Amino acid sequence: MSTLLEVSGVSVTFDGFRAINNLSIQIAEPELRAVIGPNGAGKTTFMDIVTGKTKPDEGRIVFGDRGDSILGMSESQIAQAGIGRKFQKPTVFEAQTVRENIAMALKNPRGPFDVLLSRKADNSETRIREISDEIGLTDALDFQSGALSHGQKQWLEIGMLLAQDPRLLLVDEPAAGMTPAEREHTTELLKRAAKTRAVVVVEHDMEFVRRLNCKVTVLHEGSVLAEGSLDHVTQNQDVIDVYLGR
Ligand SMILES: Nc1ncnc2c1ncn2[C@@H]1O[C@H](COP(=O)(O)OP(=O)(O)OP(=O)(O)O)[C@@H](O)[C@H]1O
Ligand SMILES: [Mg+2]
Known about the structure:
The chain contains nine helices and ten strands. Residues about 110-120 have low confidence and may be disordered. The longest helix has 14 residues, at about 150-165. The chain has about 250 residues and is an alpha/beta fold. The radius of gyration is 18 Å and the shape is globular. The protein is about 35% helix and about 25% strand. The relative contact order is 0.19. The protein starts with a strand and ends with a helix. The strands form two sheets. The protein has a six-stranded mixed beta sheet, sandwiched between helices. Bound molecules: adenosine-5'-triphosphate and magnesium ion. One of its GO terms (molecular function) is ATP binding. Keywords: ATP-binding, Nucleotide-binding, Transport. Pfam families: ABC_tran.
């Protein structure tokens, strides 16, 4: 296990407000990491910074074996380098089948999905099956994606990200709006994905975080308040004061 992502001393200010304040986090490969903390703690902004959507005012962020800085890279260069991100709202192509959605993601490794460029016959049925098995949608491969449940759409989008084979996958509040059974399936899926890559999950649902059974980082006011096992951080008095005791 070696360090894949190293964020050190990063700060971001929006109109004079320090949303991220001297933040340092290291993520290993492979690793499953949960990031929790109160509303406005900077969890989403952390993901915005790592994906290049928001540029920090100061600090260092290096990624990969050579420890390349991502600060000079564009969002698409960062995605090419192997950092994938799942947004809260699924962005699957609703008129296409599950199979077509996965196939499109496979044809364009780590690039933007460009349907026009990928007309060539696809022989990646094996990969499609591997991914559909991994996300639990093999029985739904020929369904139109728009007919899937909210949870199934989220899994499909995770599958489309896995098709790009990211080394680091960032997932913001995956369990929101899901049924208890869907949440459980999502936990299993993320745990499996994190066996071969780094997966960072932001989530408020503590039951969900407990089931992930991984190291937890608690953010507060843009910095790390506590880090360790869920039991360790939930016994921390600062964490109880700012997050759990509300
Ligand atoms: N583009 C922006 N411009 C101005 N302020 C912003 C911007 N993005 C985030 N913020 C502010 O930065 C702080 C951190 O926001 P962020 O969305 O990262 O919190 P969060 O931990 O993801 O919260 P939540 O749990 O509610 O999703 C908040 O006070 C937010 O209002
Ligand atoms: Mg957020």
